[in-house]
Amino acid sequence: MHKPGVVALRPLALGDFFDGAFKTIRLNPRAMVGLAALVTSVFMAVPVLLSLALAALGELSTGGPSSGLGGVGSAAVLVTYLGSFFGLFAAVVLNGMLVQVVAEAVLGRRTTIGAAWAATRGRMWRLVGLMATTFVLALVLFGVPVAVGVGVGLRAGVGPGVLVGVPLLLAGLVLYLFVQVRYFLLAAPALVLERTGVFASLGRAGRLSRGQFWRLFGTMLLAALLVGVVSQVVSVPLGLVGAVGPLLFPGTTGALMLVLSSFVTQVVVGALTAPFTSAVTALQYVDQRIRKEGLDVQLIAASQGTR
Fold first, then answer.
1. Where are the transmembrane segments (predicted)?
2. Where along the chain do its domains lie?
3. How far apart are alpha carbons 29 and 271 in whole angstroms?
4. Interior CA angle at 286 toward 15 and 205, to 5°?
């Protein structure tokens, strides 16, 4: 069994994905966790600074620190919503760079943050295009059932609207999950590592995932459950610290703690979970190419050529 890096070069079992993901993080923590923290911090700094600026302007306009809690408290809400928006872009940048790091780790190589950026920066707009395609898909599959249900409800009443809208919404959810796993799950690794375009990567992902839906879906479902548990374990204590701040320090100081705790929570959660999720996805891509294209032979030759 040839194993130059974090996984053996053979078809992977379920445990190999998780074990390989953790080994990749241990092999190259700076390029995995450090990169995730850096990118998340940069993207999250924008909504945080904007929220604090708006809160400060609100305090000046209402006159005095007594109004600071409400202003900065509202800013904390703004951080949450803007953070979700900017988090999408952070995820795009991270996923592209981390896929490159994992690909090198499969061969036992460490990658610097600079090298990962150099290898993927030319693909960023295409990754953004891939994210936009996902957004349009979600908008259609969820927006149309809601619109139909509302339309029926306005014409025939709430009951018929619910009877029509809910089944359509559930059907949209099932179709969305299917398309995500079948075409989008492996698209980003294909786009980055094979230097394809947006639609070419979707077609490539569709070919790789053909006949493998339940294997891919089950692996990502377990990974998502693990990530969800870790996110809650980390975010709940940090969220409590932020919530207690305004009680202990009424006014602007406590409210600032609320805003900053929201920032720290999202950065820490992103730094801990994004590397794992990206690594599992990248390893699934490698696994499918080994199963269908004999990529293991090429990887063995590449690993021996670097020794």
1. 33-58, 78-103, 124-148, 168-193, 213-234, 254-283
2. 14-123+213-305
3. 10
4. 115
CA distance 65 to 253: 9
- H helices then E strands: how many in the chain? 12, 0
Q: Is the pLDDT of residue 103 over 70?
A: yes
Using CA atoms of 150, 154, 157, 159 in order, give the dihedral in degrees to the nearest 10.
0
Query: CB under 8 Å to 294, separation ≥6 — which residues?
Result: none
Concatenating the DSSP letter of every residue in 122-136 gives GGHHHHHHHHHHHHH
| Residue 108 exposure: Cα atoms within 13 Å on the Cβ side | 14
Inter-CA distances, 223 with 218, 232, 278, 281, 283, Å: 9, 14, 10, 10, 12
pLDDT confidence band for 75 (50 / 70 / 90): low
- Please tell me the pTM assigned to this model: 0.87
Tens of pLDDT, residue by residue over 11-70, are 999 999 999 999 999 999 999 999 999 988 888 777 777 766 666 665 545 555 544 445
